[in-house]
Design goal:
Keywords: Hydrolase. By secondary structure, the chain is of the alpha/beta class. It contains 15 helices and 16 strands. Helix 3 packs across helix 11 and helix 7 packs parallel to helix 11. The structure holds 2-deoxy-6-O-sulfo-2-(sulfoamino)-alpha-D-glucopyranose and calcium ion.
């Protein structure tokens, strides 16, 4: 071939390669943040707990398969509003001002994830549970449940009005989310928070799941009949399944065999008060027979009664989660059908963990593992390797800086959290933190959990109930269910001293004011 032929071919190749449609830059991914309320790690099958094997969550697990499972992500304050405030601000409770559920409302004038995303050209949307009392700020679109929200025919609040929407809360939130995705501006990235009420108390399943787990017997935790020896606050809570659950409201028991009337239900306005007569009839058709089984138990057999109550609790709680899992499946399918998978960081998490009978409990609040840990899964194919797990100590205060970092947005200097982007993208993390700080404030309050703060390392956890001046120390390696408070035991003094120093160091680092130490 002559030289001018070679030139000709070279120019052709150059032109063809130039003409290739340029793939859109994937620098600014969308963030699809899915959060449940009170979803325990024990109830997500990707985490492998025995309970979840009997009630699997195949759709939530898809996220772990396609991406990452966080195995040591913890909240800063194990209760709804405070956890949400920490997520939005990247700060511990004392700094964002939302320290307990009962307060005047989140200070929406401070910097939040939604505001920062919006300022950086993102469309921002919030659908579902909010629970921060004041109106949301920083969202182009928001449609939220009223306070805790209701399971059946729930009210949805917007800046304009409050409207009752027919249907089951989890399904409605999913539909509203899909509707919003359909009408969004496809030219701009989005930051979307889809926040379920489920599986929050009082665990009312979707009608189609009323009988889902009737024939399943869930494992009873070894410490279901905990005697709380050596643990003052644990002994004084009011969140015991067999003592504190309301037999109507929570356990959905009938007053008598075959009688379609609930036992004690102090908040009927959120239960039958939200249902149509036909829906109430369907409820009884599903529960009448299984409620009758309760009357077969000898009332003086307190162990059998307690175990029956645990089974009912878990059957309902996990049936509620079934609809959440279906919701996640619908959303993931939507991303696939609309070519959004590669360009979207999907997050699945919850505001805090939950007890499924461990220590005899439901609810949360304590710094003990089950309520402290937050199940957290993320996918971002191409960027996050599929099927990995992150065992590092991360916290909900890290969400805001991490999401911003992943989207190439500068992290405000006053956020407490750190970006875990390097951990996600396979970078080195030699200098990642080795301890985390926790602080629960809401006392006095429902469930009677004393205020406390503490520090957790991989192996040891030190907790201080500061109003009572009581310390607890746990060795999670030898005592993973936190049954033995070894504080003050011979030979543990040096560990306690070291952890106290670490605790004060963290309080200094986060500038915890003296009044909260
Ligand atoms: C309600 C629940 C409590 C729960 C709090 C806080 N009772 O008061 O059991 O601890 O919410 O939950 S209920 O029967 O009315 O649901 S949180 O998730 O919002 O923090
Ligand atoms: Ca919650």
């Amino acid at each position: 071939p002559k030289l001018h032929h070679i030139y000709f071919f070279a120019i052709c190749i150059l032109l063809i390669s130039c003409e290739k449609p340029k793939k859109k830059e994937v620098e600014r991914p969308n963030i699809l943040y899915i959060m449940a309320d009170d979803h325990a790690v024990q109830a997500i099958s990707a985490y492998g707990h025995p309970i979840s094997k009997l009630a699997p969550t195949p759709n939530i697990d898809r996220i772990a398969k396609a991406g990452v499972l966080f195995t040591a992500n913890y909240c800063a304050n194990s209760i709804c509003g405070p956890s949400r405030a920490s997520i939005l601000t990247g700060k511990h409770s004392h700094a964002n001002g939302f320290m307990q559920n009962n307060n005047e409302g989140f200070d929406g004038s401070q910097a939040t994830l939604a505001k920062i995303f919006r300022e950086n050209g993102y469309q921002t949307s919030l659908i579902g549970k909010w629970h921060l009392v004041s109106e949301p700020t920083g969202f182009d679109h928001w449609q939220i449940l009223n306070d805790q929200g209701e399971y059946n025919n729930p009210d949805f609040v917007t800046s304009k009005d409050t409207v009752k929407i027919s249907g089951y809360v989890t399904d409605i939130i999913t539909e509203l989310t899909v509707d919003w995705l359909d009408q969004r501006d496809p030219e701009k990235p989005f930051f979307l928070m889809m926040q379920h009420k489920a599986p929050h108390r009082s665990w009312i399943p979707a009608e189609r799941h009323y009988n889902l787990y009737d024939d399943v017997e869930f494992p009873v935790p070894n410490n279901y009949f905990d005697d709380y020896e050596g643990r003052f606050a644990a002994a004084n809570q009011e969140m015991n399944v067999y003592r504190d659950m309301f037999e109507g409201h929570d356990l959905k028991l009938s007053i008598e065999r075959g009688v379609d009337s609930l036992r004690f239900d102090p908040w009927s306005h959120v239960f039958f008060g939200r249902m149509t007569p036909e829906e109430i009839e369907k409820f009884w058709d599903a529960y009448r027979e299984k409620n009758d089984a309760y009357f077969e138990i000898d009332p003086s057999d307190s162990v059998s009664i307690a175990e029956w109550k645990l089974q009912r609790y878990l059957q309902d709680y996990l049936a509620v989660i079934k609809a959440v899992d279906e919701s996640v499946g619908k959303i993931l399918d939507y991303l696939e059908e609309n070519d959004l998978v590669d360009n979207t960081l999907v997050v699945y998490t919850t505001d805090q963990g939950f007890y499924l009978g461990e220590h005899g409990w439901f609810d949360k609040r304590f710094m003990y593992e089950e309520s402290f840990i937050m199940p957290t899964l993320m996918q971002y194919p191409g960027k996050i390797e599929a099927g990995i797990s992150i065992p590092h100590l991360t916290q909900n205060i890290d969400f805001a800086p991490s999401f911003l970092d992943i989207c190439g947005i500068a992290i405000p200097g006053d956020m407490h959290g750190a970006s875990f982007k390097p951990l996600l993208f396979g970078g080195l993390a030699a200098d990642w933190r080795s301890s985390i700080y926790y602080h629960y404030y809401e006392f006095p309050g429902i469930h009677n959990v004393r205020a406390h703060y503490g520090v957790k390392e991989e192996r040891y956890k030190l907790i201080y109930f500061y109003k009572e001046d009581i310390w607890e120390l746990y060795d999670l390696q030898n005592d993973p269910t936190e049954m033995k408070n070894i504080y003050g035991n011979e030979g543990t003094e040096a560990i306690s001293e070291r952890l106290k120093t670490e605790l004060r160091k963290l309080q200094d680092q986060y500038a915890v004011p003296d009044e909260h130490r």
